[in-house]
Amino acid sequence: MGENLAMNMESRGFTVSVYNRTVQKVTDFLNGRAKGKNIIGASSLEEFVGQLAKPRKIMLMVKAGEAVDDFIERLIPLLDLGDIIIDGGNSHFPDTIRRVEYVESKGLLYVGTGVSGGEEGALKGPSMMPGGSEAAWQHVKPIFRAIAAKTEDGSPCCEWVGSGGAGHFVKMVHNGIEYGDMQLICEAYQLMRDGLGMSADDMSAVFAEWNRGELDSYLIEITRDILAFKDADGAPLVDKILDVAGQKGTGKWTVISALDEGTALTLIGEAVFSRCLSAIKDQRTAAGRVLEGLSFKLEVDKASFIKAIGNALFASKIVSYAQGYALMREASRSYGWDLKFGSIALTWRGGCIIRSAFLGDIKKAFDKDPELTNLMLDDYFREKLLAAQTDWRTVCAAAIKAGIPVPAMVSALSYFDAYRCERLPANLLQAQRDYFGAHTYERLDSSRGEFFHTNWIGSE
């Protein structure tokens, strides 16, 4: 991604200096892809810093964690007041908060920017979510907005997010929603593959059809392509891939942040746990031999059920974004970021992994009501949820009856039902807590904030 970002910047009229601890990589780059370009190489950090115009703008594309701190320490003695260090990796936002304070204490500026779109996006135009030292924005804005992806009307998918770790927080939530989207698509795939016995080619055709409608998105598009791709022997390559999913931590961080903020991020949590379940392949293989269950086969009308899966997928996707935005709203309050939710949706419209037509409707929702508490309450999304509700329930019920795991879809439906339920059973839960731990409770016939305790066993 670092190479591709350099190529992208150069293609937009900027002269770029590059450095890598492995100097041979710089030499190979200059003699290869960067040959004849306005890209300058350096064999040391000192030489690299000396090549830059002031205020220097240095973008790190290194592995999150200790490597970022190491580079910051090496750079600080070489820089002058007002120079800017930019972290373009997937750093954890608390680290970015800490680094902003530390670098600013040295008289420098620090930007932590989410960059989404993978290697292709880095080259052709990523989605960018910068935050940190606000004074740096005027200096990096012309570069970032030039290299970012553009929406249909030419708007760059890059806006200043906020102070401290705001940029990396929003990128983290983006990745969490990405986990949710991918899991939902995988559940739709398993319903068709195992439940309906469909071939990869037939499923590819379904995803192609979905991509022409309201599910139009990058992840639906690439799923269509993956299912159509053939191995050397002509068989679908996807059928030969081991069913063990990897993860780099951003989904886990999103769920942990939701727990810290007290926000119900149930769908993304299930998506993370589904990857964990996939990792215990040997246990699952052994369990399949002894834990007898249902057939995994669906007894349904195929054509109508495929349509229902699409509606269930869309409704669940709405819930995933609703939860992600609810988390951002709580974090914005906690950290004083004043996040602009419509702008974030615009930032995600192009370049990033979760880009979709759907995001335009999210932007409209927050443009109409910047104080919208939950995306499901917007007129457009409420109508879509209600219209999909019957199919959504039909799909989840049929999957459960057939023994097909659909944890994200069921979680989304349960969240929808819990959110619209005026009286949950938490009154009983509070009574239990008061019984065994004297945690007290509030009463319906008293003012909020007035707490009571009962001696439930009636003795001293």
Instruction: Give the percentage of residues in beta strands.
Output: 5-15%
Spatial order of the strands forming the largest sheet: 3-4-5-6-7
Total strands: the figure is 7
Radius of gyration of CA atoms, rounded to a whole number: 25 Å
SSE arrangement, N to C:
HEHEHEHEHEHEHEHHHHHHHHHHHH
- How many H/I helical runs? 19
Q: Give the helix/strand class.
A: alpha/beta
Mean pLDDT: 95
Mind summarizing the main beta sheet? 5 strands, mixed
Q: Layout of helices and strands, plus pairs?
A:
Elements: H1 2-11, E1 16-18, H2 23-31, E2 39-41, H3 45-50, E3 57-60, H4 66-75, E4 84-87, H5 93-105, E5 109-116, H6 118-124, E6 127-132, H7 137-147, E7 162-163, H8 166-195, H9 200-210, H10 218-228, H11 250-261, H12 266-279, H13 281-290, H14 302-335, H15 341-347, H16 358-368, H17 379-402, H18 407-419, H19 426-437
Parallel strand pairs: 1-2, 3-4, 4-5, 6-7
Antiparallel strand pairs: 5-6
Helix pairs in contact: 1-6, 8-11, 8-12, 8-14, 9-10, 11-12, 12-18, 14-17, 14-18, 15-16
Can you describe this structure?
The chain is of the alpha/beta class. Helix content is 55%, strand content 7%. It contains 19 helices and seven strands. The strands form two sheets. It has a five-stranded mixed beta sheet with strand order 3-4-5-6-7, sandwiched between helices. A two-stranded parallel sheet has the order 1-2. Strand 1, helix 2 (23-31) and strand 2 form a beta-alpha-beta unit. The model has no long low-confidence stretch (mean pLDDT 95).
